[in-house]
Amino acid sequence: xxxxxxxxxxxxxxxxxxxxxxxxxxxxxxxxxxxxxxxxxxxxxxxxxxxxxxxxxxxxxxxxxxxxxxxxxxxxxxxxxxxxxxxxxxxxxxxxxxxxxxxxxxxxxxxxxxxxxxxxxxxx
Amino acid sequence: xxxxxxxxxxxxxxxxxxxxxxxxxxxxxxxxxxxxxxxxxxxxxxxxxxxxxxxxxxxxxxxxxxxxxxxxxxxxxxxxxxxxxxxxxxxxxxxxxxxxxxxxxxxxxxxxxxxxxxxxxxxxxxxxxxxxxxxxxxxxxxxxxxxxxxxxxxxxxxxxxxxxxxxxxxxxxxxxxxxxxxxxxxxxxxxxxxxxxxxxxxxxxxxxxxxxxxxxxxxxxxxxxxxxxxxxxxxxxxxxxxxxxxxxxxxxxxxxxxxxxxxxxxxxxxxxxxxxxxxxxxxxxxxxxxxxxxxxxxxxxxxxxxxxxxxxxxxxxxxxxxxxxxxxxxxxxxxxxxxxxxxxxxxxxxxxxxxxxxxxxxxxxxxxxxxxxxxxxxxxxxxxxxxxxxxxxxxxxxxxxxxxxxxxxxxxxxxxxxxxxxxxxxxxxxxxxxxxxxxxxxxxxxxxxxxxxxxxxxxxxxxxxxxxxxxxxxxxxxxxxxxxxxxxxxxxxxxxxxxxxxxxxxxxxxxxxxxxxxxxxxxxxxxxxxxxxxxxxxxxxxxxxxxxxxxxxxxxxxxxxx
Lengths: 124, 562
What we know:
The structure holds two protein chains of two kinds.
Chain A: H1 6-26, H2 29-36, H3 42-53, H4 57-73, H5 76-92, H6 97-123
Helix pairs in contact in A: 1-5, 4-5, 4-6, 5-6
Chain B: H1 2-27, E1 29-30, E2 40-44, H2 64-74, E3 78-82, H3 93-100, E4 103-108, H4 114-130, E5 135-142, H5 152-165, E6 172-177, H6 178-183, H7 185-188, E7 195-198, H8 210-227, E8 233-238, H9 254-271, E9 275-277, H10 287-290, E10 314-315, H11 318-341, H12 347-374, H13 378-408, H14 418-425, H15 434-459, H16 468-485, H17 492-512, E11 514-515, E12 523-524, H18 530-561
Parallel strand pairs in B: 2-3, 3-4, 4-5, 5-6, 6-7, 7-8, 8-9
Antiparallel strand pairs in B: 1-10, 11-12
């Protein structure tokens, strides 16, 4: 069995996309002012979406739940999900520390489970 | 063997020396300049300093009695207070201030919610008409542009509305950080009576150390005045935190806070700078959004106790120093009794245990102080309490193991990996002894904890603290044990965690020293943050305790194959 880099590349891609969205839309002063003055379009919709999903404690608890489920069931797929949603939450948390702390824990549990599953498959 | 033992003794003695020097320094009074008089100009007053009080709640109302008690205490040292909202009971401030002979910079909270803004504006206008001689100015909006909750044009429109509705003698202004005032001056300057700028050396994009802080505030004040074409400028917020995370060279401490306030008051008097210091009382609720440091800008504690006098020397934490010495003594007593009962007490183990007690006691009290200063909720107390307990267990187990090795030279118990421990839990592998399992469990918990701290630091470097006190003793102990044994004892989980910790520790140290200012190329910070470097060193040590023996074995194997 060969090492499968796809899950890790996916997590890195989500990390890059989240970073891009944060710098170009969520925290960009010009975009914020444009949207505050009633502007419409993709940047404003994206800002609204990020605020609705990621600047809430719920998303952090969801990642933590995914991380715990992946650890207990030893499911690499759930671990990958925790890694993907977790990395996005870590970047887009917008100062919500409850979301950040629980997302960090869930993310770490998820990627450890993913690594263990891949390693066991590789060894087999 | 002898040289190994000598090296371990040197490391233990060095750590003990650091611990005792650290606590001794915190107990020493530091001489700083006195304030020019017993009264300062103005102070930010937010009444949400008692347990459970927060303006984020929305439904809370602070009692008139509490506000009266707060303002009576503040009237001893300040001529005026600045408020931030007129809701949640704060509308009582002008009436009480009038009785006490104080002035008020009346704040109107402008946020993203239109309905709340309207409520604030209506009450503030009413108050300004009712107390024109008490209200020094109305501040319409605080850092609204920084938070991107309204556009500059909207802020300007709010200011114009208030200006038209209050008596002609009441000035109207808007407050924001100085960079934002300069950035949006064309939209704001014509509408305000004067500009209110915040100059906080600690929060600058390029944080300023305490030595240059007052000079920086004075320089920025003059710079802003020049840029705003002669418009009057009020420093609406300046100050220094007494506790929290160090940002580059800007170190929060009680001594630094006292020094900043006293030096600034003197400078402001000489240079005739109008100012308001931030803030009256520590605000525990701010720790949620700004990290621990957010809750420690007060000149009074959350309980209403003055943190330092305006004259005379100031010690940092003499009370905590005494607790630390007590903890060192208690650790040593317990270690010595335990060794004596097991008939293992000799000069070699005793000297090792003395050094471990000094380091362990000092680190434990430093962590406990962090807990007291940063915890707010039961959940935080529960999680940090668990780590405090783990730190005691780690000091105990690692201390006894190291002392025993120093005394007898017998090899310490081996480490089981996480997968081996999982097999032990499922009763598939019972080959490990209790002492080995306890050591292994401690190693995994501290590896996982450090990896988690690294995730938080990498993704939220601005507001996370460096948990040096919690990890210093376990990391040094684990690294020494790994070095003594010199053989690889790790599986995938330990390797992944150690690799991440090593990488993230170095990343954090580098990122902490990069300065990013809008519109300027990045540059290195002019000074170092010792806390970031200490954390990076601990991370590298912890990573090396797992990965080091593996690398050594790989290299030795290659050499033998060759």
